[in-house]
Amino acid sequence: QLQLVESGGGSAHPGGSLRLSCEVSVLRMDTWATGWFRQAPGKEREGVVCISASGEVMDYTATVKDRFTISRDDAKNMGYLQIDSLQPQDTAVYYCAIRNYLCSEYKSAFPHWGQGTQVTVSP
Predict the structure, then answer these.
(1) Are 18 and 5 in contact (CB under 8 A)?
(2) I need a labelling partner for 6 at 20 to 30 A (CA). Which of 37, 66, 112, 113 fits?
(3) Tens of pLDDT along 9-49?
(4) Residues 55-76 pLDDT 10s
């Protein structure tokens, strides 16, 4: 059973930073694209950023491009999302998801999802 487990969420003040982690139970992480998505209260889940199996980055949300950094450590089967200069509008549940090789702009193209980790940004 393929599993994804996010961690690293929590409460932070505006201007702070958080590093979210996604542990993936697959044999070869380097054959999977890892995407990060978020869902704010009362809103639809939106894509944030994705990194393909080859390391190509796809930014889903231009407004956060300069503050969000995606990375991966294939040897550890881990994906990461570094969030800097946190803003209250970053408050959401953050999810990681994987699909074979390439990123996709469609959430439905990702068959495997984690349970999410809450990020709350407030003064």
Answers:
(1) no
(2) 66
(3) 999 999 999 999 999 997 777 889 999 999 999 999 999 99
(4) 999 988 888 878 999 999 999 9
Which tokens go with 9?
């969420």
Q: Residue 66 contacts by C-beta under 8 Å, 6 or more apart in sequence?
A: none
Give the max Cα distance, the chain.
Answer: 42
DSSP-assigned beta bridge partners for residue 78: 23, 73
C-alpha to C-alpha distance for 23 and 73, rounded to whole angstroms: 10
| 20 closest CA partner among 5, 30, 41 | 5
Q: What's the pLDDT at 50?
A: 97
Distance between CA atoms of residues 111 and 68, nearest Å: 23
Tokens 């390391």 correspond to 55
Q: Collect all residues with Cβ–Cβ distance below 8 Å to 76 and sequence separation of at least 6.
A: none
